[in-house]
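Hey, I was hoping to borrow your eyes for a little while. I've been staring at a protein lately and its backbone has me curious. You're getting the sequence in one-letter code plus the fold written as tokens. Would you mind checking whether the tokens look sensible for this chain? Here's the protein in full, and shout if anything looks odd to you:
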Amino acid sequence: AFRRPQSRNAATTLSMMGVMSISMFLGITFLARNLNVRVGEHLEGTRSVLAQIGHTVYGGGLLFFILQGFTAGILVLAANTAYQDFPRLSAILARDRFMPSQFKNRGDRLVFSNGVVVLAVVASLLIYAFDASLTRLIQLYVVGVFTAFTLSQAGMVRRWLREKGEGWRRSMIINAIGAGTTGVVLIIVSLTKFTRGAWIVIAAMPVIVAFFLAVHRHYESVAAALRRGRMSIRDEAQNRFILLVPDVGLATSDAVAYLRAVRPERLTALYLGDPGGFREAETRWLSVAPRLGRLEMLPRSGGGTARALRDYLRSVPREPNEFLTVVVPETIESHSLFRLLRRRGSFWLKASLLFEPGVVVTDVPLVPEEHIAAAVHAERPVEPERNVVLVPVSGVHDATIRAIVYAKSLHPAEFEAIYFGGNPEDERRIVQEWAEQEIDVQLSIVEAPFRDLGEPLLTEVRSHTSRQDTVVTVVLPEFVVRRWWEHVLHNQTALYFKRILLFEPKVVVTSVPFRI
């Protein structure tokens, strides 16, 4: 970041740095030659060139240690350059869809923290694998740095040939000489240092390029899948609800109250508990939900509850645009996420349902703050008067359209789509696309400083749940990928939203999966 005029100030700074570097290099070379400095093949067994010069000139006194201290400081700054530029470069590649999108995310300190963490992990692994041997690690550095020099200079030659601006021939010749010089050095280093570790970098390059291309192909296929127009905003969705009833307890009563607010046209209550307790559960069900139909037993043919439920859902006849919403009541005993993860059955059940075509998963948690009220109204659940639906959106595409069409089937008293802004250009783009699609739902731009989406979402939700008569349904468009490794290429924002909303009172989270 230079003051204006930026190009002139940058050129001046670069020239000064070049003069200083050349002067120091020539000076150190002159001193090393005249002081008979010798460096062995194994760097760990000898002092560095600067250390030998300093010890010869200053002896072992204070000035020698000052020189060593400044040298160490410069090396720290040099290492810090990688932690500044790699995260920035990876963010640019992620923006162009050649690296996972997580590298675009900024942390609390306004840096691309994922890039910093990945670089630190890789650097630590290299240090461990090479036993922190400078002699072995330097081979990787030499090949890598001259490869970067050659590619950057060759890229500038290509740029001058394409644009042909003022003075392009002179600039192209300079960059061509630079590319040729560093290219020759790269070839020599690769041949002479190949067996000493340079082969690792040479072998890694095609693997890294193949990774970039695979990531790019995936994102291109996702973009194409999101623009196919499978569902129109004018479509009216039919919605059939399946309420899972492990027992007719407080969580089930709370889910019944929510369903009354949604007013489902078709509802099936499915008993998942012990078959021996079905009669008692059926009697209690008629008392708790007399207007929601009879309680049915989940047909079981072996293989566990999750498999039996999937078989049942696949047997339900549906129209092309009909959703099958599975409502999962859940009792949250404490705010400990660790204790909740120990109940793996419920988690894996909900996760497996996301892969079923046309199935939507609605999680109705009964959090500790709601236990007393639920116990008071256990026999006669009191439905909320207002059902507010919020749909967080990341763009205008088929996944968003599908979630909005679904949300309309919940008969909300208030309906709002939320886009978390931070970039004015992106905000203008989504507003324009929203208008072009003629989406008849209010779009609210919510400021998300540093792209921290959690706190802005909670603020928006709590602005509605502050009313005692309101329940908020957060409808999440959720990508479902075909291969396990593709999960790491997406931000998993829906999963993050589920986690932070799990312990919120009067909040129901609905996942509308979109298969890509």
Observations:
- The chain has 17 helices and ten strands.
- Residues 62-95 form the longest helix (34 residues).
- Residues 124 and 132 are 9 Å apart (CA to CA).
- The mean pLDDT is 88.
